[in-house]
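Tutorial handout. Part one gives the primary structure; part two gives the three-dimensional structure as tokens.
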Amino acid sequence: MGDDLSDSARRLLEALRRNQTLSRGELAQAAGITERQASRLLTQLRERELIRREGGNRYGRWIVTDQ
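Part two.
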């Protein structure tokens, strides 16, 4: 995993490892950040291919790839 991740991004990834079906709001709460920050971090983590979304928005889940 990237060593240059912020503390917020690390907390977000840990929350995703614990529960892959969390919504953005639930992820934000679990990581102690705002929903907007969570959205931004999710985009960054996707671009770095550290996470991916499987399934749809409503019933999908997050996959932590640990690349």
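Part three, for discussion. The mean pLDDT is 91. The longest helix spans residues 35-47.
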